[in-house]
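Worked problem 6 (solution included).
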Amino acid sequence: MMRLLLAFALAISPLPLFAQEGAPPPLANQQLADPAQEARALELMQRLRCIQCQGQSIHDSDAPIAAAMRHEVRERIKAGQSEAEIESWLIERYGDWISFAPPASGGGLVLWLLPVLLLGGAALVARGRFSKDRK
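Solution. The predicted structure is:
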């Protein structure tokens, strides 16, 4: 019985290795050699939203897509592209939503105006509700 249990334990012991995801891209978690370039990359990564986590920046997220995006940002910074060029490429690829500060035009205009409209509507409802209670 003990041999059977030992054989079973040895047979299933490598299974957790198969559950691991592939390694992140090389520059996903590795800093750039030039401190100025790394500072630019970090600043840009904090302005970009992870498309999987949605509430986190790609700098803070552990999602595989965020790792791939960090790698892409570092590669493009290393290649000499500006932050604006990289951000516009990512917005073109993933949409305005990827930026924590979407442009105030087109679909981004709705994102900027919606909180104001909701707050105004809530104020009107509250005003109507409280003015009826006083009478």
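Discussion: The two ends are 84 Å apart (CA to CA).
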